[in-house]
Every structure is written in C-alpha cells, then in structure tokens.
Amino acid sequence: MAKPYRSRINRQPSQFRIKFIPSITVILGSMITALPVITDYPILPPMGLLVLLSWRLIRPGYWYVWAGFPLGLVDDMFSGQPFGSSAFLWSLVFIILETLDRRGVGRDYWQDWLIASLSIIFVLVCGMLIIDFQSNFLRLEILIPQILLSILLYPFVTRLIGAIDNWRVAT
Amino acid sequence: MAPPNNRRPGFSKRAQYSIFASYLLGILGAIVGLLLLLISIFDPRGFSALRTIGAEATAPISKTLVEIGSVTGNAAENVSAYFNAASKNAAMKRELEKNRIEILEARSLKQENERLKRLLGLEKEVPDAIGMARLISSTSSSSRRIATLGLGSSDGILVGQPVRAPEGLVGRVLETGPTTARILLVSDSQNVIPVKRANDGLPAFATGRSDGTVEVKPINLGDNPFKGGDLMITSGSGGLYAPGIPVAVVIRQNDTGAIARILANPAKVSHVIVQPMFQAETVAAVQAEQGVGVDGNGTDSEGTEAAGGGE
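Structure tokens for the assembled complex are given below, as produced in the milestone run.
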C-alpha cells in the first residue's frame, strides 16, 4: 500500500504525542500493581515514580513544578498507600528537583542516577513511615530489596523512556 | 543533560513572577497532598471510592494475566513432575498408606465430636462459603499489604467478611467494588487478629509485620510462654473470624511475645474462600457501642475489646 504523501520539510510532530505521552507512561507505570504478583512484603519497584523521575531528569523544564501532585493522586489510586501520600511526596521531590535545576549547573548521567536513587529512597522510606511511624521506624530494613531493585532498574527505565522520548518528538 | 532554555529570568519581571507562581503552585500541591493524606489517615474509608475505581479499572488486565500465569505455571509443574517420577511414586504410596489410617482415625473422632456437640446442644451451623475466587493482584510496591480479589459486592461480598484458604486465614474484606474486593492480608501491619494457642487455648493477638510474619503478643503480659512450633488459631473473639482457623506458627520468641510465620502464603494459595462473619450481631453490637466501623485502618478495636473480656 502506498504511503500517503508527506512533506519532506517543515514537518510538525504530533501535538498529542508531545503533550500527553509523558503523563500516559507515568500512569501506566503506576498501574504496575495490576500485575498478578502477590507478595508478603513490598518488592515491586514503584514504576510510576521511576518513569516520572526518568522524564523529569531527561527533560528538565518539560514538567511544571506542580505536576507531581496530579500524577501522585493517580498513583495513589493504584498503590494502596493512604490517599495523598504519593501526591505529597512526589510534589516535594519536584520542588527539590526544580531548585536543583535553578542552580543552572549541568549534570552528567551518574549524577542523574544519584539524584534519582536519593529520590526513590526518600519516597519509599517516607511512604512506609506515613503508614505507621512508630512500629515501622524500627523495621525499615524490609524496604532494602525493593530500594535496591528500584535503583538498579532506573537506568533501564531511563533507556526505555529515552526511546519513547525520541519517538515522541519524531515527525 | 540538555541545557535548559529558561534558566535565568534576568531582569524581566514577568519571567520572575512566572517562576515564582510555578513554585507557589508546586508548594500548594504539596500542601493539598498533605491535607489529603491527613484526611485519609483519620478517615481511612474516605477515598475508598477512588481506590475502587482504580481496582475495577485494572481488574480485567489482572484477571487475564492470572489466567495466563496459572496455565504456564501448571505447565512447568507438569514437566518437572516427570523427573524422579519413580522414586516419588514409591514415596507417595507409603504416604498414602499412612494417611489412610489417619483418615479413618479422624473420621471416628469427627463422629464422636458431632455426637458430643449434639449432647451439649452446641450444634451451630457451620459458616459456609459466600464465594471462592483467586487473588488477582496485590499492592506489591507499597508497604501496605492489601490484595485484590476477583469477586465483589455483586457476588454478595460485604466489608468485614473473613477470607481464608485451605492452609489458613488470608485476611478480611476491606473495601468492595462491583466486581472486585480489596482484602487486608494477615501480614498487614494494621491488621490485628485475636488468636489462641491451639493446644491450650492461651489467648493472644497477632499483628502483621508486612514481611510474611506476624507478631504474637499474649494478653496476659508478664510471662512469655511461647516456644517454636506453637500453632496459633483464631479464637473467635470479637465475632469476626470463626474460631479454629489456623493463622500462624511460632518461629522464635522475642522480648514481648513471639514472631510467627503466616501459614497461608497469599502468593502460593490458588483460590481463597470468603466466609460470612462468624457472629455478625456481636460485631454490630460492639461497633455500635464504640461508634466505629470495621474501618479501613483496621485497628480492630472491636476484636481487642471482646477478646480482652471474653476469654
């Protein structure tokens, strides 16, 4: 079948892709709890957060500072955490990252990974403490496998998001 | 990292204000998030409708994946069963002989038990199952331990009903949607279950530790009577769980009680059974007295109250 004629110059990328693909991928990441994995302890990495951090660090300036709030609310629908915990924690992460960006110093890949790792640890630990501060404070080691898995998975998620980003802005 | 294009606002008032406004919105988002969080901590059922929408939306995906997973899982088991088939066969024959004798003994015990119960007039209708289904997913990325069940209020599932597997207690219904229900698992740290030791009826509480074990605390503080291998079963106090459902086996002592491993591993059980509440009228009475529901936070104050006085 012949391709319809497309201009070779002055092409515009799809506005739908440009505007909505990042949010859609984050929401799909949040839906990882739909996988039929039933465990007795937290082990699955918080994919919504990983995807969001990838976008945020690949494309500084794309997201508004307040974008953590609505995406966090969607994540709360699926995660099982008390409603509002991701909205709160992701907003804090976004404010901190924005402040870092305002410093105007270029970062390299390893620094991005470090920033993402610290954000993941912050969100997971705070998320566990929010549920029950007193009894969970002494049991934070439960989170170690999940934190390690998330940190090691981050580079792969970033590669995937980078590929999606290339497709997103392609004409 | 690509250099961002709008870093320095310079002397433009408009650019400075827009940066300021975006920060303000970000901080506002965090504050609203914190408020929502506080609301949901103090009223855990407040946002259950939203979570139900989430569960219902992803349920078809989960159900399909569960079906595929069980098929492939069974295939792997079938293949591996061919290895060592002969020696396994012999071992199973021996076990069968042993079990046959035990079954005969158990049958006679059961008859005697029924006869004695009739004598005492204790014959109570055995709680039958409301429904049987698979657990289709769980909150594996959060520290809460809540699983989703493929049955909902349209199948007659009500909030508070106990959920069990043949191996033991799995949890209780926390929220219901039309075709899904969310199950608070035994291992959740907010789940408190009145239990007793199987051999002497020593009353205790089992609290989840979010890692496949529960913490067992005796009601009579002061001594620590637990030792490894003690079987903990539900005591029936509080009227929520029928008595005699196995819950956990003690693996070691700690300073206030014991740590016990949960018998029904929700990752392994294939199907779970939803049972009616053991004594719904007791639960209702305790709730009316205390003005609380079988709330999502699951502090189980009703169970605490009744078990403390009832034993």
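Chain A touches chain B through 67 residues (CB under 8 Å). Helices of chain A lie at 15-30, 47-58, 68-79, 85-102, 109-131, 133-136, 144-169. Further analysis is deferred to the final report.
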